[in-house]
Every structure is written in structure tokens, then in C-alpha cells.
């Protein structure tokens, strides 16, 4: 909450003045009655390519987390690791049972 009329002296100038001075000054005497001036932070504009990459990585991470949560629920995932050769006998068995039920 600095006003525009506030004057400030950079620390480098104070250091130079101290080195050039013949009189021995102490830092606490020089800084007596002074305030700390911190310029307002100006947030740099983000690169649009970086934003796009961050969003893509967030989406990939969300998909990985979702897949991890639902790995034992998804039927396709269970049989994805198995080949059709191991899946087809199961289907033929089910088909045979359905035909038997239909004939009764």
C-alpha cells in the first residue's frame, strides 16, 4: 500500500554510500525510521503451448487414475489380456447351455 509519491533508495546505493563514507555508520542507524518496500508481483503470462501440454497431461493422469479404480470392473479389460482362443471355449459353453435351455 505504497503511494506513488513514496521515495525509496535501493540497497545497492546504501551499500555504496556506506563504503564511500568516512564516518562509521551502523546499519541500524541508517535504517532507523525506514520501511521495507516490496514491489507488487506481476504474474508472467503463461505460454499457451505450456497450458495445452499441462491440460493434456492432467487428462492422461485422470484417465490412468480412473483405469486404476475400475480395473476389476471392466469386462473388456479382464479379457483383453486373454486371447480369443481362451475366450471362445467359454462362449461355446454358454451357447451350448442356452441351446439346451431353449430346447426344453
UniProtKB/TrEMBL annotation:
A biological process term (GO) from this entry: vacuolar proton-transporting V-type ATPase complex assembly
Cellular localization per UniProt: Endoplasmic reticulum membrane
GO CC annotations, alphabetized: endoplasmic reticulum membrane
Pfam assignment, any one: Vma12
Superkingdom assignment: Eukaryota
Major location category of this protein: endoplasmic reticulum
Membrane protein topology class: Multi-pass membrane protein
Keyword field: Endoplasmic reticulum, Membrane, Transmembrane, Transmembrane helix
Keyword Cell division: no
Keyword Phosphoprotein part of the UniProt annotation: no
Protein known as: Uncharacterized protein
Organism in which the protein naturally occurs: Rotaria magnacalcarata
Amino acid at each position: 500500500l505504497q503511494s506513488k509519491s513514496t521515495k525509496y533508495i535501493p540497497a545497492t546505493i546504501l551499500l555504496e554510500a556506506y563504503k564511500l563514507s568516512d564516518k562509521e555508520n551502523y546499519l541500524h542507524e541508517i535504517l532507523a525510521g525506514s520501511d521495507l518496500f516490496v514491489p507488487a508481483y506481476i504474474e508472467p503470462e503463461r505460454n499457451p503451448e505450456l497450458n495445452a501440454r499441462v491440460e493434456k497431461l492432467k487428462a492422461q493422469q485422470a484417465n490412468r487414475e480412473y483405469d486404476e479404480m475400475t480395473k476389476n470392473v471392466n469386462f473388456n479389460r479382464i479379457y483383453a489380456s486373454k486371447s480369443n482362443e481362451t475366450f471362445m471355449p467359454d462362449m461355446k459353453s454358454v451357447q451350448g447351455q442356452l441351446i439346451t435351455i431353449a430346447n426344453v
